[in-house]
Write a structure and sequence with these properties.
Bound molecules: coenzyme A
CATH superfamily: Gcn5-related N-acetyltransferase (GNAT)
Distance between the termini: 26 Å
CATH class: Alpha Beta
Order of helices and strands: EHHHEEEHEHEE
Mean pLDDT: 95
Structural class: alpha+beta
């Protein structure tokens, strides 16, 4: 598995990983309606292309195929972190996070913030992030709860 920079030409592959990753989230964390609303955020392709072009985007590649990705906005906000279902629990998110932490430090950021899903909460807590607040996101006709978190560098 290697980490590679991600470009706008990767958008279709990145969105496949995003959709598969969200689809497998268990009903303990979010309802089917909430998961469908979350997946629907893949429809705004222009927004994704803009984020991929402007932010620090990396992908985890296995056998020439992306199996996960992550992004850092303004060197201090972890925006995306998604791993394909078959490749979870193998330390790939950890490698992506470690890389983004090193980029944030190189750019003299003193913290990284993120909005963690319920599904990723344990992962971020295990990595030293602390909960600052609870967010309620309105997507489509439904709302999703996540956690505003911070890691001091
Ligand atoms: C949350 C998410 C990004 C974690 O990705 P991941 O690649 O599975 O994460 P890692 O493998 O680095 O770590 C996850 C767990 O696997 C364990 N692990 C890592 N390598 C392992 C290995 N070789 N064997 C067994 N377990 C392993 C880690 O210790 C960690 O344990 P924990 O659950 O006790 O914390 C992933 O589950 C995901 O994409 N979820 C859905 C989308 C989502 O919610 N994204 C976050 C949006 S903010």
């Amino acid at each position: 598995m290697v980490l590679e920079r991600t470009y706008v030409t990767d958008t279709t592959d990145i969105l496949k990983v995003f959709k598969h990753s969200v689809q497998q989230i268990g009903s303990l964390d979010y309802s089917q309606q909430q998961i469908e609303a979350w997946i629907s955020s893949a429809e705004d392709i222009q927004k994704w292309k803009k984020n991929i072009a402007n932010d620090y985007f990396i992908k985890a590649v296995k056998n020439d195929y992306p199996v996960g990705f992550a992004s850092l906005k303004n060197n201090n906000f972890l925006d995306y972190l998604y791993i394909s279902p078959n490749y979870q629990k193998k330390g790939i998110a950890q490698k992506l996070l470690n890389h983004l932490i090193s980029i944030a430090k190189e750019n003299k950021s003193d913290c990284i913030k993120t909005n963690s899903s319920k599904s990723a909460l344990k992962f971020f807590l295990n990595n030293g992030f602390e909960i600052l607040d609870t967010n309620i996101l309105k997507i489509g006709g439904t709302s999703l709860e996540n956690y505003k978190m911070i890691l001091m560098l």
